[in-house]
Structure formats: structure tokens, C-alpha cells
């Protein structure tokens, strides 16, 4: 049975942007000969709370290590004034929420009868969520995806847009913009009705297909029923742990953060309001989660958290508070799930609850 772990948290870059590097097998184990040619580099770091260097993983010669210090450098250069909220494990997993305190809005839930509106607002800040790993087992993601895209210069096709995530002050939750690559609520509702999962592409990409590369722009070719003259290349910026130099990683990440700065529309934000308007009975809250395989203990913790926020905000129990309770239990309670697995489950929960309001 996998060991449960509670994520550590910090607002200090120095706690997570410690020195880490790739070291060749023979430099650490010079007295041995390795016949495993596919993995020849150790990922070695020096966390500030560890007396000795830590070996996080063993990777191949083409593996590209993305250091948190590089993310820190790019964020400081591009984002200007921002706040860091980081969750991490001692095994080298990281979730970095970079929020913009000057870009805020409040989610309004219906107040409870006989209760005065609470003085505590339900405030969200625009945020960029990055996951990173030194174990070599989890991918680097930005806003829950491994790529960013933009409009084609020669056709009207639009690939998935940069999501706009948020940081919720009342509970320290980082909320992915799970619905943001869709044009409107009708398209998102159709996708859900067809049994959509977060790994499927939105319907507007049905006439293009991707040709994957390491970090070069992705070639997008048309299918047979479209004339060849309309072929195009969409500037996909893929970030995979292979083929990157330190400089190319920083350049790519700079472009992605600049795209985040310019992103304004958020379909997920509209759904937050709809979820808040959908009141529920606490004893029936678990019924909304039957389609999602979430540990029973975390479900109960989520319902308990919903009750806490109901009293704190002076509002009716609703799907918005239930979703945040679920997010809170995933990231603030012990579980054996990896950080990326927690986000995967969080996305499934969001889609499941959104079906009830569309």
C-alpha cells in the first residue's frame, strides 16, 4: 500500500529553488560499471532542510532538468508583482501557484435566510499554476497542460487557449481553469454530454491533427477533406523533459507567461458563478460525486470543509463550496496521490459538478 503524505507548503522561493543538477553515473559511483545504458544521469539536489545531498531519480542522457530557480527567474522578469503559494513533497514534486493580487474578483453565493451577509468575501486572484518534478516520473505542466497554443496565421482554426487559473484566498486553494479552452458554455456542455474527459481535444480541432516533436513548433496538417493550400503550422510550445537547454526552456516559459498575462476570458469563471448559485442539501452532497472515484475519507473531509465555509461566508451550501471542499481535501489532507494525480482528480470533479449546472 502506498504511503499517504501531506503536502508541505511555503511562500518562500528559497525553500524550493535550491540547487539541483544532473550528475553522471560514474561521478557518483565511480567504483561501479553500469550496463544500463538508458539511464546514466542522477538527479541530485540539496534541499535546505536536508543535511546531505538527495538523489531524486535516475534518467537518460537526453533528459532535460527544469530547475525551480529558472521558473523563479522568468516569473520575476515577466509577471512583475506576484505572490507565490507552493505545495511540495520531500520526494521532489512541486505545485507552484503564482497569483496576481491586483487582478481580483469575488464569487457571490446566495445568503442563508435569517443570516446577515458575512464580512469575509469569497475572493479569487488570477493565477498561473505550474507543476514540476525532480523525480523524472511526472511531467512539467503549466495550467494543467504540457502545451500552449495560439491562432493560426492562415486559417481560422484555433487550438486550445491558455487557461486562466485562480487562487482562492479563503481556503488557499489553487483552481485550474479546466473549461477555458472551449469557446462558450454550449460547446463545453456538448463535450460533457458526449462523455468528454480532460484528455480529449475540444470539438473545434476535429479537422486538424498534431505531429508531435520534442520542443520544436508542432506541425499541424489538415485532413483529406480540406484542400492542401490551407495547410498551416500552429505555434505549439511543448515543454517535455527532453531536448531543452537552460536558455531554450527560459525562452519558452517566457512566451507562455506572456500569453498568460494577456489572457482575459475565463469560461471557468462563469461556471464558478453557476456552481455558487446551485444550492444543495449537505446530506446529499455525496450523490454528486458518484461518477468520480474519490476516496471516501476525502469525500467526507470535503463535505466537512463545505460546512465550515458555509458558516464562514454566511451562505447556503452549494456546488461551488462543495468543489472547493473537494479541492481543499485533495491538497490539504494526507493522501498517497502524486501532485499531478491530485490535479487530474480535481479536473474530473470540476467536470462532474459542472454537468449539474449546464
Question: Please, could you describe this protein's structure?
Answer:
This protein has 358 residues and is α+β, with helices and mostly antiparallel strands. 28% of the residues lie in helices and 20% in strands. The protein has eight helices and 15 strands. Strands 1, 5, 6, 7, 8, 10 and 11 form a seven-stranded antiparallel sheet that branches. Strands 2-3-4 form a three-stranded antiparallel sheet. β10 and β11 (173-175) form a beta hairpin. The protein is elongated, with a radius of gyration of 22 Å.
Short note summarizing the structure:
The chain is α+β, with helices and mostly antiparallel strands and about 350 residues long.
Write the layout of secondary structure elements.
Elements: E1 8-10, E2 20-24, H1 25-28, E3 41-45, E4 54-59, H2 68-78, E5 83-88, E6 93-106, E7 123-133, E8 141-142, E9 147-148, E10 165-168, E11 173-175, H3 185-193, E12 208-211, E13 219-222, E14 232-233, E15 237-238, H4 246-262, H5 267-277, H6 296-313, H7 319-332, H8 339-354
Antiparallel strand pairs: 1-5, 2-3, 3-4, 5-6, 6-7, 7-8, 7-10, 9-15, 10-11, 12-13, 13-14
Helix pairs in contact: 2-4, 6-7, 7-8
Largest sheet: 7 strands, antiparallel
In terms of per-residue confidence, which ranges show pLDDT below 50 for 5 or more consecutive residues? 148-159, 198-237
Outline type:
elongated
Structural class: alpha+beta
Would you tell me the overall average pLDDT?
Answer: 82
The gyration radius over C-alpha positions equals 22 Å
**What are the secondary-structure elements, in order, as H or E?**
EEHEEHEEEEEEEHEEEEHHHHH
Number of helical elements: 8
Number of DSSP-assigned strands: 15
Distance between the termini: 39 Å
Question: Considering DSSP H and I runs of 4 or more, what fraction of the residues is helical?
Answer: 25-40%
